[in-house]
Design a protein that fits this description.
With about 300 residues, this protein is mainly alpha-helical. It has 13 helices and two strands, in the order αββαααααααααααα. Strand 1 and strand 2 form a beta hairpin.
């Protein structure tokens, strides 16, 4: 029945998506196809006035660029941690605020607020916490280790500082989507599972998560894409330091484009980043969509 309705109204559905399609093509796909990809085949330095066609030499140079290769590894590590933790926390918080609790709306807003704050402001807030609040807590606890601990002096601690801030900001949006999914679950199925003794953690794992696979698919897609494109929070916190140990691919190509003015080489890195995101999200969508069918 739904299939017949769709076929009858397909033309109207296509008309509805055309404005968004044209905006996407004009603002994103167009510049990528006609700007970034062709530019990656040139040696283009805007300060020297060089714009020579060199073919795939930029891509060949990437294979020996240690800073770029390190930025790829760092980006993968950051994406893995932030995607997994933010989705887990987002789901747990959504489950909590979906129940009957006091001031439910205020609690939801409290968790969502970080998502509407700009990444730079979030980074400034957490920089104050890391550099001023943490030492003050160490003084109160009479702990020299906490008082003198520097989050940004080493690559490892800076990595975890970035993870904390990124998860704190991104979790709220994922929570809202999980909450929306939880509220659409059929009550009769949940009530039947409770009558059969399936409650608590067992109900979450066996009933709620399988039924929430469409929401999980969307949340994973969004968080993976954001994880690999991470820029503003990291740039405001560390600018890729110390010693470029916290450079993501986005910061690395930004440095090439606007510090070294090597636009062609930066465009080649942009193409590689785009391909990485397409491949990873494509694999994720294929896996989770199969789980939706099974569910």
């Amino acid at each position: 029945m739904n299939g017949l309705i769709y076929k009858k109204r397909r033309k109207f559905y296509i008309l509805f998506i055309m404005p968004a399609f044209f905006i996407y093509t004009f603002s994103l796909a167009g510049p990528l196809v006609f700007g970034t990809i062709p530019s990656s085949l040139f040696e283009w330095n805007i300060m020297k006035g060089v714009h020579d066609f060199i073919g795939l030499e930029n891509f060949a140079e990437l294979l020996t660029d240690k800073e770029f290769l390190h930025s790829i590894v760092f980006t993968f590590m950051l994406a893995i941690v932030t995607v997994l933790v933010s989705n887990i926390i987002g789901f747990l918080v959504a489950t909590m605020v979906n129940d009957k609790i006091y001031c439910k709306s205020i609690v939801r807003a409290f968790f969502f607020i970080p998502n509407i704050i700009s990444g730079v402001m979030v980074a400034m807030l957490w920089t104050f916490i890391f550099q001023k609040v943490t030492p003050a807590i160490g003084q109160l606890m009479h702990s020299a280790a906490i008082e003198n601990f520097s989050w940004f002096s080493r690559g490892t601690s800076a990595f975890w500082a970035i993870c904390i801030v990124s998860i704190w900001q991104g979790m709220g949006f994922l929570m809202i989507l999980y909450l929306t999914g939880l509220q659409t679950l059929p009550n009769d199925v949940l009530e039947a599972s409770e009558l059969d003794g399936c409650t608590g953690l067992s109900q979450i794992l066996r009933i709620k998560i399988p039924l929430l696979m469409p929401t999980i698919t969307i949340n994973l897609f969004i968080s993976i894409a954001n994880g690999f494109k991470a820029f503003d929070i990291i740039y405001a916190l560390t600018q890729g330091g110390p010693s470029k140990t916290t450079q993501t691919v986005a910061i690395n190509l930004y440095d090439d484009a606007f510090s070294k003015f090597n636009m062609g080489y930066a465009c080649a890195k942009s193409v590689i980043l785009f391909l990485i995101i397409i491949v990873i999200t494509g694999i994720q969508m294929g896996i989770t969509r199969r789980k939706e069918v099974q569910a």
